[in-house]
Amino acid sequence: MAHTLGNLFILAAPSGAGKSSLIKALLQKHAETGPHNNVMQVSVSHTTRAPRPGEVDGVHYHFVDRDAFQALIKQEAFFEWAEVFGNYYGTSKIVIEQTLKQGIDVFLDIDWQGARQVKAQIPDTATIFVAPPSKTELLRRLTERGQDSPDVIDKRMTQAVDEISHYHEFDYVVVNDDFAAALAELDAIVTSRRLRKEKQIMRYDQLFKDLLSE
Ligand code: GDP
Ligand code: ADP
Ligand code: 5GP
C-alpha cells in the first residue's frame, strides 16, 4: 500500500486483557478533544462467532456464517484472517485501505496470527501488545465481564498463554493494570506515530513550502 497519512495500529492481547475497553476509551477521548485532523476508527472485523448479548451487527462485528466467510476468503476480500477459539475472524481489505487514505488512523483488534500477516504486508504498522497485570486478574476480568460461559472462559485462559508467548513480536507493550495509566501510554504511542517525519511532511506540506519560500 502506498504511503498514507493515516496510521495503522494493531492491538493484540489475550482475551480479557482490556483491548476493547482501551480502544473504546481512546476513541472517545479523541472524539471529545482531538482536532479534526486527528481522527481514528476501529476496524470492524467479520466473524463466524455468535453475537454476545448487546453486540450489534456492523458495529462490533459483521456477523456471518461459515459459508459466507469462506466465500469472502475466496474473493480475497480479507487483509488477514485467522481461526481463533474455533471461529473465523477476518479484517476486510478495502475498508482499511480507504480509511487510511483519508488520513484516518485505524485500530485493528486482532490476534497475534493476524498481527503477523498485517505486519508482513505493511511493515509501517505499529503493533501493540496489551498484557494483563496477572493471570488471576485476567481470570477475574473474563469472569466479571459476564459475557462468556465457564467452558469458553476456560478455553480463553488456556489460549491466553499461547497469545502471551508472542508478546516479543510486537513493537510496543502496554501492561493494563491501572486503566487510566494504560490509556495514557496507548495515547503516547499514537501521538509519537503521528509525529513521525513521514507523516508530518504529508500533513504540513503547504506549511513547509511557505516556510521555505524566499
Ligand atoms: P461495553 O460492553 O460496550 O459497555 O464496553 P466494554 O466491554 O469496553 O466495558 C464494559 C464495562 O466496563 C463498561 O461499562 C466500561 O466503562 C467498564 N470498564 C472498562 N474499563 C474499566 C476499568 O478499568 N475499571 C472499571 N471499574 N470499569 C471499567
Ligand atoms: P478484551 O477486549 O481484551 O477481551 P475487554 O476490554 O472486554 O477485554 O475487558 C475485559 C474486562 O476487563 C471488561 O469487563 C473490562 O471492563 C475490564 N477491564 C479492562 N481493563 C481493566 C483494568 N485496567 N482494570 C480493571 N478492569 C478492567
Ligand atoms: P472476541 O471473540 O473476544 O471478540 O475475539 C477473540 C479473538 O479474536 C481476539 O483475540 C481478537 O483480537 C481476535 N480477532 C477479532 N477480530 C479479528 C480479526 O479480524 N482478525 C484476527 N486475526 N483476529 C481477530
TrEMBL record:
Residues 6-191 form the Guanylate kinase-like domain. Its EC number is 2.7.4.8. GO terms for molecular function: ATP binding; GMP kinase activity. Keywords: ATP-binding, Cytoplasm, Kinase, Nucleotide-binding, Transferase. It is found in: Cytoplasm. ATP binds at residues 13-20. GO terms for cellular component: cytosol. It comes from the Bacteria. It catalyses: GMP + ATP = GDP + ADP. Essential for recycling GMP and indirectly, cGMP. Belongs to the guanylate kinase family. This is Guanylate kinase. It comes from Paraglaciecola hydrolytica. The lineage of its organism: Bacteria, Pseudomonadati, Pseudomonadota, Gammaproteobacteria, Alteromonadales.
